[in-house]
Amino acid sequence: LLEQLENQGIRIPYSCRAGICGSCRVQLLEGEVTPLKKSAMGDDGTILCCSCVPKTALKLTR
């Protein structure tokens, strides 16, 4: 997801690109993603952009 956002000119802060630092955490408002690791999805509806693959169109907020 992070790479797709970058390709569209949407800048999301990041540091590690490996799902460790949490810098790319955003709120998932609409849509579905496939997490690449368990820690990529928070119980509060947040996701790590670097560790999720979109399954549908998404609506996100910081």
UniProtKB/TrEMBL annotation:
Q: Which GO terms describe its molecular function?
A: 2 iron, 2 sulfur cluster binding; metal ion binding
Name this polypeptide is given: 2Fe-2S ferredoxin-type domain-containing protein
Query: Which residue numbers delimit the 2Fe-2S ferredoxin-type domain?
Result: 1-62
- Family statement: Belongs to the 2Fe2S plant-type ferredoxin family.
CDD domains, alphabetized: fer2
Classification via SUPFAM superfamilies: 2Fe-2S ferredoxin-like
Necessary cofactors: [2Fe-2S] cluster
Name one matching Pfam family.
Fer2
Q: Which UniProt keywords apply?
A: 2Fe-2S, Electron transport, Iron, Iron-sulfur, Metal-binding, Transport
Has the keyword Iron-sulfur been applied to this entry?
Answer: yes
Query: PROSITE patterns recorded for this chain?
Result: 2FE2S_FER_1, 2FE2S_FER_2
- Gene3D superfamilies (UniProt xref): 3.10.20.30
Q: Which organism is it from?
A: Escherichia coli
Top-rank lineage group of the source organism = Bacteria
